[in-house]
Amino acid sequence: MSGWRFKRPDGLPLPQPTEEAQPFFDALREHRLVVQRCASCEALVHPPRAMCGTCRAVRFDWVAMRGAGTVYSHVVTRQAVHPAFAGHTPLATVEVELAEGPRLYSNLVDVPPEEIVIGMAVEVVFVAVAEGVVLPLFRRAH
Ligand SMILES: [Zn+2]
Which residues make up the CATH 2.40.50 domain(s) of the chain? Predict the structure, then answer.
């Protein structure tokens, strides 16, 4: 279980972007949350992919999201199911539905797991977790 190499200073795994996802992570470094928009049918697509799931087009634009959303779903992991997560439980994972429609998985900052409620309003906060790596985490909307 020690074969994973890409970890944050706090020990958690780092994302390993695919070629399609690299622009998403590049924008995060500039504190912009972007998603793909199909150049043919204009569907908003997330996570990033090579082909539109609606019309099968393969060309996309990247559009900025406002960063506002609501908790669509959440789960609290209480056991470290991988050594990387030892000392990081309970760990709340949320599925955030952005105001524009796309959903993404993330974590909340400064919200105890027992206070997470489906439908709660959240807003993005850009957190540098390692050199050159920024993640879109969320906090209670103010
Ligand atoms: Zn499309």
Answer: 66-142
